[in-house]
């Protein structure tokens, strides 16, 4: 497991859609604060940890490994804020927000992923059961640092 920290200031009361409009070239319309609500209030500066595993994993498998070492998965608002503040990260590797999960009426559980394709910074939905390459980074936070 490879870990890189980045300090990020998250405004939990800002709408996810506002962060997406301000920092990305395109995003799926189902990525909203209604579908992925913030879980805390206020403004918090926290260390986002980019974690790369040495093998390919689903987000569920990654979460189990993260929790085993005292980390929690990043939420779409936290990951979008990180991507907005550090745009070069998304150009290197997909950034995966393994929590929370949302489901469309016609499908299985979905998570949010930031990627870079054709010189465009995108935010998209991906299956929670998808396998991400070892070049992707899961965004996590130390549980002790992010208690409500």
Automatic annotation (TrEMBL):
Listed name of the protein: Uncharacterized protein
